[in-house]
Amino acid sequence: MNKPTKKFNTNAIREGIHMTEEGEHSEAMFLTSSFVFKTAKQAADRFQNVEKGNVYSRFTNPSVRTFEERLASLEGAEQCVATSSGMSAMLSCFMSLCQPGDHIVVSRSIFGTSVQLFNNILKRWGLNITYVDLKKDLEWKSAITDKTKFFFVETPSNPLTELCDISSLAAIAHESNIKLIVDNCFCTPALQKPLLLGADIIIHSATKYLDGQGRCLGGAVLGRKEDMANVYGFLRTAGPTLSAFNAWVFTKSLETLNIRMQAHSANAMLLAEWLEAQKKVKKVFYPGLESHPQFALAKTQQSLPGGVLSFEVNGGITEAWSLIDSTKLLSITANLGDVKTTITHPSTTTHSRLSDQERVEAGINDNLVRVAVGLEDIDDIIGDLNYLLK
After folding, report:
1. What pLDDT score was predicted for residue 133?
2. For the chain, how far is it from start to end, CA to CA, in angstroms?
3. Which end of the chain is more exposed for a tag (fewer CB within 10 A), N or C?
4. Helices 86-97 and 225-238, interaxial angle, to 10°?
């Protein structure tokens, strides 16, 4: 854990700035594939890490560095390694820090593509995966073997907004010399600080709330320098690199992250309360509701409940699709974290590649709808769901 010297909003705006000789006020954008050296010796020293400095944008770029330094300051991490997407962040993390034969205990409540990464790719490289209930500490303890290297969780989870007690799970992990990796995509550091709660590594899909407007793909891995050195080494060689342009976009977006997350949470809370009062809605999943089984944990672990909620309609896939198709304002897309409200049907989109049994175990039913609440006027968002009133 690296304690920032300034407060959150100041770091979100000021951290990572390296003004050039031109004296620019806004952060410069370095759209270049390579960098020029003054001498042949300097080139040799840079390539051999004798002298610090830019070499090649696959692994050194000032625009990317600014984003990495800024996000690290917000999460309280010693170092951040930016990647080309959230999934490449996961791949870089596990490929760089694991060996064949290592064991990873994974929450059953994770993004569908993450399940595919574990089952269809990482298992082929000799990693052993065990899935457990996110909320049950005893299952995590029981899954530990002498080969277990990491615990991996999303909290809140996608799409059911289930939580784990990060401090409790970190303590369980550390008793057996295991490291806890937390996907902090739903909350961002504006609402939740996993490292402060005992986690060891954080993974982000910067594509979501860190961007906030659905423009660019990107990801990040954050943690201690000793771990990030391996992640950086993987990125330098394998090249799942964040582009300088996307890094610049994310850097500028971080300036408004805190205020956006507050607004997303406020709208989501109002929508969740409205949905809970509708007769055609069977159940609402949102950590800000007192009906959420982990409401008390959310109040202590997160500063706000976040902008994503899910709900089950009465009926099945026909009723869920009819609701989605009735919308005119909401965007039917599987992305989230946008200023535009998005709506999707998880069992046939984000979790469609899971087997029927895997979806049942994860609680992804055919009548489930996920909404990532944007920043439109809440009355217009609710009005677009008037199918539920018919």
Report:
1. 95
2. 52
3. C
4. 110
CA-closest candidate to residue 63, choices 301, 330, 231, 246: 246
Return the H-helix or E-strand segment holding 71: helix 62-75
Q: What angle do CA 225, 178, 84 make, to 5 degrees?
A: 50
C-beta atoms surrounding 36 within 10 Å: 8
Cite the beta strand spans of 92-169 per DSSP E.
Answer: 103-107, 128-132, 148-154
Strands, E assignment, the chain? 79-83, 103-107, 128-132, 148-154, 179-183, 201-205, 219-223, 281-285, 308-313, 331-332, 342-344, 368-372
Which candidate, 57, 49, 12, places its Cα nearest to that of 31? Answer: 57
CA 109 to CA 115: how far, in whole Å?
9
Predicted local confidence at residue 39, as pLDDT: 98
* Alpha-carbon torsion (90, 198, 151, 134), positive or negative: negative
Write down the pLDDT at residue 363.
86
Q: Name all domains of the chain by residue range, CATH numbers in brackets.
A: 8-254 (3.40.640.10), 257-389 (3.90.1150.10)
Peptide bond into 156 cis (omega under 30): yes
pLDDT beneath 70: ranges in the chain: 1, 3-4
User: How far is the C-alpha of 81 from the C-alpha of 371, rounded, in Å?
Assistant: 30
pLDDT in the model for residue 388 = 84
